[in-house]
């Protein structure tokens, strides 16, 4: 499976091991509580 | 010359330009081929600015995604409720936006004396940009080296989407000059 891509400035590449591990960790975390709301 | 309204033909002096409060620091083009799950905007934070406005205008592949931003040097020792700021967008994809669209902004309190205010504008393709409220929390910005959380400093902004990708568009960073 292809890893997600990341970019630093103009350089685009697949995430490295550390970045991918961090990405997976972030996905597993609960997001911060939402405050404020702008409805149309 | 009357700042900030200049008239045609006037010569803009250094002193006049130094009074301009908000500067476009970076207009970063987000990759579309391939689309990216994260990106870093280099060299945006510095001691020249007290606070920043970040405008993310891109197309998200997934609906209901949250976008996280943090200083790029901070790769450990943080949690989603500590450093991250999030932007949840009910219909982030421009193709579907506009029908009952809403935007929630979630900002985790930094709670430090040196924290500054970050304001986000979020726009999606095909939709007008909107300003999202009075946001009172932020990253940890220092005034000397850019931005810190106590474990390092960074001049770079890292943006990541929790799922899916961001494709095309721009991430603009404006600085409120000190």
List keywords for this structure.
heterodimer, A: alpha+beta, two-stranded antiparallel sheet, 1 helix, B: 178 residues, mainly beta, five-stranded antiparallel sheet
Describe the protein in words.
The complex is a heterodimer of chains A (40) and B (178). By secondary structure, chain A is an alpha+beta fold. Helix content of chain A is 30%, strand content 32%. Chain A has a two-stranded antiparallel sheet with strand order 1-2. Chain B starts with 13 loop residues before the first helix and ends with a strand. In chain B, the strands form 2 sheets. Chain B has a 5-stranded mixed sheet, with no helix packed on it. Chain B has a 5-stranded antiparallel sheet with strand order 2-9-4-5-6, with no helix packed on it. The A-B interface holds A 4-9, 12, 15, 18-19, 22-23, 26-27, 29-40 and B 30-31, 34-42, 66, 68, 75, 79-81, 84-86, 88, 98, 100-108, 130, 132-135, 160, 162-163, 165.
Helix count of chain A equals: 1
Q: What structural category arises from helix and sheet content of chain A?
A: alpha+beta
Distance from first to last alpha carbon of chain A: 39 Å
Structural class of chain B: mainly beta
User: Could you give the distance between the termini of chain B?
Assistant: 22 Å
Strand order within the widest beta sheet of chain A: 1-2
Largest sheet of chain A: 2 strands, antiparallel
Helix content of chain A: 25-40%
Instruction: Report low-confidence residues of chain B grouped into runs of 5 or more.
Output: 74-152
Oligomer: heterodimer
Work out the largest interface and the residue count of each chain: A-B, 26 and 40 residues
**Overall pLDDT of chain B, averaged?**
59
How are helices and strands ordered from N to C of chain A?
EEHE
- The shape of chain A is globular
CA-based gyration radius of chain A: 15 Å
């Amino acid at each position: 499976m292809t890893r997600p891509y990341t970019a630093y400035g103009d350089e685009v590449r697949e995430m490295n091991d550390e970045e991918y591990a961090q990405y997976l960790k972030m996905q597993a975390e609960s997001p911060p509580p939402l405050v404020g709301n702008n409805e149309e | 010359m009357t700042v900030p309204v200049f008239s045609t033909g006037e010569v803009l002096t250094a002193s006049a330009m130094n009074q301009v409060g908000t500067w476009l620091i970076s207009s970063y083009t987000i990759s579309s081929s391939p689309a990216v799950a994260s990106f870093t905007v280099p060299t945006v934070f510095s001691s020249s600015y007290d606070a920043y406005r970040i405008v993310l205008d891109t197309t998200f592949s997934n609906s209901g995604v949250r976008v996280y931003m943090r200083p790029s040097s901070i790769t450990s020792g943080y949690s989603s409720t500590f450093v991250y700021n999030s932007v949840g967008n009910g219909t982030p994809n421009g193709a579907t936006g506009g029908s009952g669209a809403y935007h929630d902004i979630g900002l985790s309190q930094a709670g430090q004396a040196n924290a500054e205010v970050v304001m986000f504008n979020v726009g999606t393709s095909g939709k007008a940009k909107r300003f999202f409220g009075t946001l009172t929390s932020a990253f940890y910005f220092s005034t000397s080296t850019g931005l810190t959380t106590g474990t390092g400093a960074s001049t770079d902004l890292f943006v990541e989407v929790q799922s899916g990708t961001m494709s095309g568009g721009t991430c603009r960073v404006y600085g409120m000059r000190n």
